């Protein structure tokens, strides 16, 4: 017997006793153990008969009472109608196949989420890989474009680092018929006595 397995004894008064935890439990406690990934086996306290399947079905039924999202009615009807062995085996095989597929999809989704989280957690590393040494051969046009972009970024950075030049204001050009003012520092012409 698996040492990690939790053995639950079911008594005639429908009480459930967890032998590993030395305590009485209810169906919610059993559901919590299953959700935690623990393997649970329910046995009749007197006969030792395995009641796990019946008890887990009871948990599902109780859960369906609280939340009406359980198995589809059509499937439940088919399970009841499936009285002969061949039909019952087919339905059980179908349900197991569907569940296995569901678990495979869940696992794939979890792997994808894990990959996305690791990519999101290290954006600087991604940027370094993008801007720095991109591994593997690149098509020639990508290399040219990348080097052009790098050169342009370097030019823009250089512009930002230089102090801005002050522009000199040019003297306004005289208009026709107007006298031009003397340049700074030049002596004003004296009025002539003519």
Task: Describe how the helices and strands are arranged.
Elements: E1 6-10, E2 16-18, E3 23-25, H1 27-35, E4 40-44, H2 52-66, H3 73-81, H4 85-121, H5 123-131, H6 140-161
Parallel strand pairs: 1-4
Antiparallel strand pairs: 1-2, 2-3
Helix pairs in contact: 1-2
Report on this model:
The chain is an alpha+beta fold and 194 residues long. Among the domains are: 1-70, no CATH class; 72-127. Helix content is 52%, strand content 8%. The chain contains 6 helices and 4 strands. The protein has a 4-stranded mixed β-sheet. β1 (6-10) and β2 form a beta hairpin. The protein is elongated, with a radius of gyration of 42 Å.
Summarize the structure.
The protein has 194 residues and is an alpha+beta fold. It has helices at residues 27-35, 52-66, 73-81, 85-121, 123-131, 140-161, and strands spanning 6-10, 16-18, 23-25, 40-44. Among the domains are: 1-70, no CATH class; 72-127.
List low-confidence stretches: none
Distance between the first and last residues' Cα? 134 Å
Main sheet record: 4 strands, mixed
In N-to-C order, the SSE pattern is EEEHEHHHHH
What is the topology, as strand order, of the major beta sheet? 3-2-1-4
Portion in beta strands = 5-15%
Specify the overall morphology. elongated
The structural class is alpha+beta
Give me the count of strands. 4
Mean pLDDT: 76
Supply Rg: 42 Å
Give the helix tally: 6
Helix content: 40-55%
Core attributes:
194 residues; four-stranded mixed sheet; 6 helices; 52% helix
